[in-house]
């Protein structure tokens, strides 16, 4: 096993690595031990603190919270993907009067924190007479932010494609819309799928911001359970349960992204072997132009690296 | 604009709160992120596992929940000075952002071709020379642009602390609402402040990117 950082270890390096490994394990055990001791010392393991989680009604509540989280996530994910496409196509437009304003919208939406946008929708807009339930404030803010991020991802995907794809599309007589919809976007989406899914994981995590504007989602439910004095205020326990559910949901989504990445890698590896068949940035048109020499058309510049 | 002129103290405190969260959280994130990132690329299996578990757990937890834990659960476990919400939020944001710093470092190091290090070793360079002259200079160049993106995200994430009693640009809306001011104007001003701050960081990112471009 050779890495860019270290050589294949010799006997002394192996011994040193073993010692460092033991030290790492000891440090981690120490930290875990401290946390467990604090939990024990403050009575967090007592049955009374966990009793609340033995009731069906409580789990129904938690389930409702998780469903509210998923409801906000589902609507926001669909909306963000749609908005992402619209903004990406707008920003790739040939017309400056479309491209420039869309570019500004994307930059502003990306620069404003999601929470501030939620506050504007939930607390700011009622001043001018627009009221909405907290659910819609969460969903619209998430759509606006993640849509603008996804549009940049899709745009980067389209721009990373070889220029020959577009030229070939025009050469067989497709229009601009046909080139975009049939040639560029499908390839860009396939290449960017892992990034798109990991942005959806971010969307799922950001639904928890709804807690701050009192949207009754999973974290809000956890706070409600945790401050219930009848059950000894099991705040830490509720936070741990909610955290586990969040991590499980996000890991499930991340796993999808991982699988997509693996599939993608396998597929592209089968098509082109980068070591033996270097894939240049030059299109065939340019190569022909280069061979034509100085008599050729002005297009015969050496290929420039893009992006 | 009138709001800023009428309550300069509140706005100053809010801006200071945001900057403390940004720089304090950023410092913790950098130190811890370098440590975790180094663990993830180290030849020690135990350290790699610990780094991977930390990154995968914390990165899949919402920041709101991390700060929730620090604001409500940590004071129950260890005694903290009263009113130390700011300190707890700085630690929470630092621990959360450290995972992103670690991942950025790891992918930056992965962009350096193995042949570079092998060539350096073939020349007879030792570990520190390989690192100092060959690997790290190249890794640093490809790390800087994404690292700046991590810090832009950190700046925006500081607003989440407003939900847990920390004074910053995200919480000033509540102050203004108490004073009977127009909340919408307040929030729009906060948005303008963030657009300006983010554009500033993005400009810095572009400058660094141009100066440190990888010449391959």
Walk me through the structure:
- The complex is a heterodimer of chains A (307) and B (216).
- Chain A is an all-alpha fold and 307 residues long.
- Chain A is built from 11 helices and no strands.
- Chain A folds into 2 domains: 11-42; 56-295, MetI-like (MetI-like fold), CATH 1.10.3720.10.
- In chain A, 71% of the residues lie in helices and 0% in strands.
- In chain A, helix 4 (96-111) crosses helix 6, helix 5 runs antiparallel to helix 6 (134-159) and helix 8 packs antiparallel against helix 10 (235-271).
- The longest helix of chain A is centred in the C-terminal third of the chain and has 37 residues, at 235-271.
- The radius of gyration of chain A is 27 Å and the shape is flat.
- Chain B has a single domain (2-211), classed as MetI-like (MetI-like fold, Orthogonal Bundle), CATH 1.10.3720.10.
- The radius of gyration of chain B is 21 Å and the shape is flat.
- Chains A and B meet through helix 1, helix 4, helix 5, helix 8 and helix 9 of A and helix 3, helix 4, helix 6, helix 7 and helix 9 of B.
Pick out its properties.
heterodimer, A: 307 residues, mainly alpha, MetI-like fold, 11 helices, 0% strand, disordered C terminus, B: 216 residues
């Amino acid at each position: 096993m050779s890495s860019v950082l270290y050589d294949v270890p010799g006997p002394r390096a192996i011994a040193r690595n073993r010692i460092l490994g033991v030290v790492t394990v000891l440090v981690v055990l120490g930290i875990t031990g401290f946390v467990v001791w604090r939990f024990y010392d403050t009575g967090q393991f007592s049955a009374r603190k966990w009793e609340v989680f033995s009731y069906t009604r409580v789990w129904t509540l938690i389930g409702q919270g998780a469903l509210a989280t998923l409801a906000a996530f589902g609507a926001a994910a669909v909306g963000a993907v749609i908005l992402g496409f619209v903004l990406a196509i707008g920003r790739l437009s040939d017309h400056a009067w479309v491209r420039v304003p869309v570019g500004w919208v994307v930059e502003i939406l990306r620069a404003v924190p999601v929470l501030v946008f939620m506050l504007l929708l939930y607390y700011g807009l009622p001043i001018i007479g627009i009221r909405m339930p907290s659910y819609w404030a969460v969903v619209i803010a998430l759509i606006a932010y993640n849509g603008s991020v996804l549009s940049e991802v899709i745009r980067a995907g389209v721009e990373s494609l070889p220029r020959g794809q577009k030229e070939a599309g025009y050469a067989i007589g497709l229009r601009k819309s046909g080139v975009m919809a049939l040639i560029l976007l499908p390839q860009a989406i396939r290449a960017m799928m892992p990034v798109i899914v990991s942005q959806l994981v971010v969307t799922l995590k950001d639904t928890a911001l709804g807690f701050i504007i009192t949207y009754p989602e999973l974290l809000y439910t956890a706070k409600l359970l945790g401050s219930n004095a009848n059950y000894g205020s099991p705040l830490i326990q509720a936070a741990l349960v909610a955290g586990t559910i969040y991590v499980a949901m996000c890991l499930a989504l991340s796993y999808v992204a991982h699988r997509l990445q693996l599939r993608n890698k396998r597929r592209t590896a089968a098509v082109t072997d980068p070591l033996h068949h270097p894939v240049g940035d030059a299109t065939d048109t340019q190569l022909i132009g280069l061979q034509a020499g100085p008599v050729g058309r002005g297009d015969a510049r050496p290929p420039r690296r893009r992006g | 604009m009138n709001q800023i002129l009428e309550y300069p103290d509140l706005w100053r405190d809010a801006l200071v709160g945001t900057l403390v969260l940004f720089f304090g959280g950023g410092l913790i994130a950098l130190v811890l992120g370098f440590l975790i990132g180094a663990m993830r690329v180290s030849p020690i299996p135990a350290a790699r596992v610990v780094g991977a578990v930390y990154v995968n757990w914390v990165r899949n937890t919402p920041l709101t929940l991390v700060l929730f834990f620090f604001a409500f659960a940590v004071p129950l476990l260890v005694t903290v000075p009263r009113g130390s919400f700011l300190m707890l939020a700085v630690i929470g944001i630092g621990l959360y952002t450290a995972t992103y710093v670690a991942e950025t470092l790891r992918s930056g190091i992965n962009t350096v071709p193995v042949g570079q290090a092998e060539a350096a070793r073939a020349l007879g360079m030792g570990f520190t020379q390989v690192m100092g002259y060959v690997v790290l200079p190249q890794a640093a160049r490809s790390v800087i642009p994404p690292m700046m993106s991590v810090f832009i995200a950190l700046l925006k994430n500081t607003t989440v602390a407003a939900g847990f009693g920390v004074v910053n640009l995200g919480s000033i809306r509540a102050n203004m609402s108490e004073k009977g001011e127009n909340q919408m104007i307040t929030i729009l001003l906060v948005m303008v402040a963030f657009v300006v701050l983010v554009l500033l960081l993005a400009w810095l990112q572009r400058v660094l990117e141009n100066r440190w471009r990888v010449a391959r």
